[in-house]
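Consider the following assembly input.
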Amino acid sequence: MANTYSIGIDIGGTNTDMGLVRDDGKIIDRNNIPTNVYTELKPYIHDIMECIGKLMKDNGVDKIEGIGIGAPNGNFYTGCVDNAPNLTIKGVLNFEEEMHKYMDVPVVLSNDANAAAFGEMVYGGAKGMQHFIMFTLGTGVGSGIVVDGRLVHGSTGGAGELGHNILIPNGRQCSCGRKGCLETYTSARGIVQTYCELKGVPVTSDINSKMIGDLANQGDPIALKTWEVVADQLGLAMANSVTFSAPEAIFLMGGPTKVGEPLLKPLQKAFEKYLLNIYEGSCKIRMSELKANEVAILGAAALIKMKK
Amino acid sequence: MANTYSIGIDIGGTNTDMGLVRDDGKIIDRNNIPTNVYTELKPYIHDIMECIGKLMKDNGVDKIEGIGIGAPNGNFYTGCVDNAPNLTIKGVLNFEEEMHKYMDVPVVLSNDANAAAFGEMVYGGAKGMQHFIMFTLGTGVGSGIVVDGRLVHGSTGGAGELGHNILIPNGRQCSCGRKGCLETYTSARGIVQTYCELKGVPVTSDINSKMIGDLANQGDPIALKTWEVVADQLGLAMANSVTFSAPEAIFLMGGPTKVGEPLLKPLQKAFEKYLLNIYEGSCKIRMSELKANEVAILGAAALIKMKK
C-alpha cells in the first residue's frame, strides 16, 4: 500500500513550524516561517500554504490526508484560533476557512498540549490506549486528556487545563489571577520558586529548572529537596486526575521532566501515596516517547486522525 | 409507534428496587426484594428475574429493551459487581452472565452515581447535553461524568470518583484512608462536622444535615456559616472539575442540596470565584430534575441507552 502523508503545523508566538509527516510517524521534511511579523491572517495563511506546497513538491507528495494545527487557543470545534494573547494577529482567526481557499483537505485545530497527547497516541507510547492523560511541564503546565480514544475538548473546546486545577487553596498567586494552581508549583518557574524558597534567597532569573536538575543529579541537597516537593505536588495532581477518568497511564513531557531520578523516584512514591485504593496498580507513569523537537509537529499532524 | 420498555434495578445493601420504565421516563410499575438475605448470587438473580417477569406480566409488557443496573462497584465493562463491601453476597458477581440464563436482552451495569448522571441525560434536565458532570451529595459524595454524550468509565470502569478528589492536602481524615477528600467536607457527615466545629462542640449523631438546613432557613447564623463553608469547598471542587472536561452544566442531587438558598447562593459565588476565566459563563449549576425516589431506577434503566 502506498504511504499516506499529512501536514503538522505548530504555531508559536515567534515561529510557525511545519512538517510533512508520513503515516508511520516519520517527519519527512520540515520548514518554518516567522509568526510575529504578521498582523493579518490572510498573508500569514498565504505564506503557510506556500510552504506546504513546497514541502509537498520537494518530496514528490501530491496528496495529503489533512492539515493538523497545534496552536495556543486552537479550537477543535470551530477551526479557529480564539484571541491568542501571544500572537501578533489579533482576534478570532478562522484557519480552517482560510486554508480551504487553497486546499480542500480536512483542517483540524487544537491546543498544543492536546496535540501532544494525541500525537503520543498516534505515533508514540500511548498507541492502542483508550484512556490516558498527558501533563506537559514547561513555562506553564498543560494537559491533554484522552477518553475512549478521543481527546476531551468539552463543551467549549477548552477542556484539559489541569495546569489550572487549584491544587492548594489560597496557595501561590497564579498568572491566571487565581491562587494555588498546579502551574504555580510544577512549571519551570514554580520549580525555581520552590528552590529559592528552600534556599532562603529571593526568586531570581539567574537560576532555571535545568540548573536545579543538574544540581540535584550532582547530589545538592536543596536541589534534591526541591524535586521531592515538586514530585509530591505533581503526584497529588496526577492522583486527583485519576479519580476523573481512570486512565491506564499518565504521560509526562517537557523540560523539567528530563531531570530523571530526582523527580521520577519521589513522583512514583507520591502518586501511589495519593492514589485512591480502587485504582491501585491500574495506572502507570510514563515518559513521552516522542522527541522534544518532533512532538509539536507530530501531535499536530495526528489531530487529523480524530474524527469530529 | 408502540412504546418500548426497559427494566431499571437499584441495588442497595438492604433492598433491591426494580422498576418497569417506559421510554418517556415514566416508571409504570415497581417492586423490590431484600438484598441482605442472600449470600449466593444464583438465588438472588432467580428472585430478581421472577420479579421482573411479574412486573412485565402485570403490565402486559412482553418485551423489554434491556436491563440496567445501578450498583455499588457495578462494572460497566465486565457486567459484574466487584467485591462490593456493603453486599452480603461476596466476591465478583457476574450479573450479566447469570441474567442471560433467564432472558436474552442487554444487561448493563454501572455504579449508582454514574447511573444517576446518565438518567439525567436520558430522562431529566441534561437531555441533549454532550458534556456535563453530576455530583451526588449524601452519606458519601459520588459523581458521574458525561463526555461526548457518554459516561466516562475509564480504563478500569471506576472513573468518576470526584468525592475522593483531594481538595485540601493533609485535610480531614477520609474513610478511604487518605486525607482531605471532597467527601470529608461536603457529604452529610462532613457538613455536620463543619457545623459542630463552628459551634465549638464535639461532633454528634444528634445532628444531621437536614437539621442544619432547617436551622439555616430559620436564620441561624452558625448554620448559615456552615453552608457558606460547604459552598466554598464544593464550588472549588466544581471549578476544578471544569478544567477537566469543560462541561456545559454541573448537576447536583442528594439530601444536602435540598437546603436551597443557604447553599445555592454562596455556591454560585464560590464557583464563579474559583472558575478559570476561559470558562466564564460556559457552565451552569443545575439541580437534578429527577425525583429523589425515582432517580435510582430511572438512572439504571437509562444505562441500556449507552452503547458499549
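The first strand of chain B starts at residue 5 and ends at 11. Ask yourself how this observation constrains the way the partners meet.
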